[in-house]
């Protein structure tokens, strides 16, 4: 059983930074893709950033140049460094992984950016 636990969300002013963490258990974060999604009320969950086992990163256009996804294999943790935050980045952020054709989600962490 894979478990993902996010932390690091909070309230920040526009232009500020936050770093989200996703600690995995039951699977190595380096074993496959781990990604970050976000969701606001009434909208579909949106893929924000992804990191493959080979270290390739992808980002949705709205966060390119501002967000960075990375991992620490020793800590079995994936991070999302978010800089130059904007009010439109306000959402619940979820860590996600697919292992053996099953989707695993964390519980989510709220990020609120005030203008």
Written account of the structure:
Strands 2, 4, 5, 6, 9, 10 and 11 form a 7-stranded mixed β-sheet that branches. Strands 1-3-8-7 form a 4-stranded antiparallel β-sheet, with no helix packed on it. With about 120 residues, it is mostly beta strands. β7 and β8 form a beta hairpin. The protein contains no helices and 11 strands. It is globular, with a radius of gyration of 13 Å.
Fold blueprint:
Blueprint: E1 3-7, E2 10-13, E3 18-25, E4 34-39, E5 46-51, E6 57-59, E7 67-72, E8 77-82, E9 91-99, E10 102-105, E11 109-114
Parallel strand pairs: 2-11
Antiparallel strand pairs: 1-3, 3-8, 4-5, 4-9, 5-6, 7-8, 9-10, 9-11
Key features of this structure:
mainly beta; 7-stranded mixed β-sheet; about 0% helix; globular
In short:
This protein has 115 residues and is mainly β. The chain contains no helices and 11 strands.
Please compute the radius of gyration using only Cα atoms.
13 Å
Note the total helix count.
Answer: 0
Spans with pLDDT under 50 lasting ≥5 residues? none
Average predicted local confidence, pLDDT: 97
Q: How many extended strands?
A: 11
Subunit organisation of the chains: single chain
User: Main beta sheet, described?
Assistant: 7 strands, mixed
Distance between the termini: 40 Å
